[in-house]
Amino acid sequence: KMLMLLLMCTLPLGESARRRVLVIGAGQSGIVTAHYLSQDNENDITVVEKEGDLGGVWHPHKQFPNLRANNARDTFTLPDLPALQGTSDFPSLYETHAYLKRYVEEFDLEKFIHYNVKVERISRKFDADTPFNVTFDVEFHDADSANVKNLDTSYEVVVVATGYTSTPHIPTISGSQKFTGLMLHTSEINTKFSPIGDATVEKKNVVILGGGKSALDAAVWAAQNEAATVHLVTRCMHWAAPRYIGGPDPRSGDWNQNILYSRFSHHNPLKDVPVSSWLMHETTIGRTIRDLFWTVVTSGIKKQFDYPSWLVPPHEFVDDVKYLSILHPDIISLMKTGRIKVHLCRRIAEFTSDSVSLAEVSNCTVPEGAPKSSNSINADVIIFGTGFKSSAAPILSSEIREKLFNEHGQIQLLRGAHNPNMPGMGFVGFKHTINSMLTSALSARWVAEYVKGTDGAISRNGVLDDIEEVWRQIRQGNAFERTIMARQTPTQKSDSKKIKPYGGLFQGNPIYPYSDAIMRDLGLESVMSSSWIEEFNAPQLNTLYAGLDQKLRNHEQHENVPFDATP
C-alpha cells in the first residue's frame, strides 16, 4: 500500500488521473467527438443523450418522412467510415440513421453512451488541480433515476455536441391558445402523423410557416398525402439547388456536388490559403470567372425548373449562402399549379380556433405576377418550418452564457469549437457549412487536440497564443454572419461588390475556408488533389480526411509532413 501511495504521489497528473470528459449529445457531432476523444487513453469519456437512441436530428422520430440529405452520399459521411453499400445518391432519413448506428458499432462507441439522460444545468468553478484550472458541475434531470445515479456530476472537460438544429424554434403568435387544430414543428411530423403517430393530413387544410428546406419539404409531404389545401406563408423565396443540375437524374444531369462543392465555387478569404484559391478568388480575372460561373449556374437552374418570375428569389444565388439547400424535385411544379399556394411577403398575425389571419411583412414588395394572398386561411394543421434556436443556452449557467454569447445573441466561437473565456469547454456542431458531416468531424478533431492541453496540436501550434487575433476572428466572423443575413432582404437584390468578406469564423456555406483553417491549426497542409484542374472541378470526398490521428502522430515525429489528398 505504501508503495502504491508513493507511486501515485510521484506521477504527473496526466499519468495518475484521466481527464473526465462529458460529451452532451449522441447525434453525428457527439459520436464523432467520442471517436476522436477515444483515441487518447488519457480521456475518461461519458456521452449523455436525452433520447432513448442515437442519431440526434437524424433520428426518424424527430423529422419528416421525406427528408433527404442536402449532400450526395460521398460528401455526407464522417471521414473514417465510407457510405454504406446500397445508400441512395442523396441519403434518406432512415439511411442516415442506419449509417450513424454503424459508425458507433464500427468504433465501439456504445460503451460511452448513456441514453435517456438530460442535462439541466452546467456551471463551473475554479480548481487549480485540474488541467484547465476549472471543474464543471453538471445537474442531470431526475438525478435519482437508474440512468443517472451512477454518473459523475463533476467533469474537467465538457463538450457541447448538440449542434444548432436540435431545439425547434416556434415563434410566439397572438391567439395560439385559441387554435383547436394540430400545431407542430417540422421536426415533429414523424411522431405526430402516420405511421408512428395517429394524426393524418388527408382532407385537412394545412398551413406551413417558413421558406427554408424543412418548410418546402413539409409542403410537398402534405400535398402528396392528400391534404385538402396546402398553404405556404413566407417572407420570400430562397435559392436552392436541384439534386442533379441540368437534368432530373445523373444520366441527364450532373450531381450538384460536382458543380457546387469544388474550390472553384467556394470563396476562401482566410490567410495562408493555397495559392490556387487566392488566384481564383482574390484577383480581378479570377473573380470575373467565378462570378460568370455562378451566373451560368443560376440561369441553368431557372431554366431546368422553368421558374416563373415571381418565384425567383430577390437576391443572387451566391448570396443565399445561409439558406442554400436542395430542392425537392416536385416543389416548383406544385407551386406553379397552385397545389401548394404560396403567400409571399406575408406572416401569420393571429390564430382563431380554425383559421389564421395573415398580415403584410413591412418593407416587403410582392413580386409582379405572384398569386394574390387572402387575409384569412382556414386551418386544421399548422406546421412551423421556422428553424431552430440555440441548444446550448438553456443548459448553461448565467455566468457561462454571459461570456459565451454577444449582445446580438450570437455564440462566440473560434472555428465553431472554442471560446477563449471558456477553458476546458468545447463545442461541436455549431459551425454551419455546406458539408455538415465533415464540419462536425473537423470541429471534433480540433476539440480533441485542444483537450490534450500542451500535448495537443492546438497548443503546440500556438493557435490561441495571440488572444487579440483570436477575438478579431471571432468578432469579425459574427459580423460577417450578420452581414449575410442583412443581404437576404426580401425587398431588393443585393450588391455583393459593396460588401467585403471578413477573414473570420463565418464564411457562409463554403466548406473549404473552414477545412483549410482547421488543417492549419492542426499543423497539417490543406487537403488538396495533386491535380490543380481536378481540385477546382471536383468535390473533395469526406473520406480524404480519414486517418488524421495518424497524420498528427507522424507530424509530431517529422515536421512538415505533406498531407496527400490523392484518392
Low-confidence stretches: 1-16, 489-508, 560-567
Strand order of the largest sheet: 3-2-1-7-22
Q: Span between N and C termini?
A: 55 Å
Q: What spatial form do the alpha-carbon principal axes imply?
A: globular
Question: How many helices in DSSP terms?
Answer: 17
What is the mean predicted local confidence, pLDDT? 85
Structural class: alpha/beta
Radius of gyration: 24 Å
How large is the share of residues in beta strands? Answer: 15-25%
The helical percent reads: 25-40%
Largest sheet: 5 strands, parallel
Count of distinct strands = 22
Q: Can you tag this structure with a few keywords?
A:
22 strands, disordered C terminus, alpha/beta, globular, five-stranded parallel β-sheet, 567 residues, 16% strand, disordered N terminus, 17 helices
Provide structural commentary.
The structure is a single chain. Helices cover 30% and strands 16% of the residues. Helix 3 packs parallel to helix 12 and helix 8 crosses helix 9. The strands form 7 sheets. The protein has a 5-stranded parallel beta sheet with strand order 3-2-1-7-22, covered by helices on one side. It has a 5-stranded parallel beta sheet with strand order 9-20-10-11-16. The chain is built from 17 helices and 22 strands. The N and C termini lie far apart (55 Å). The radius of gyration is 24 Å and the shape is globular. It is α/β, with parallel strands linked by helices and 567 residues long.
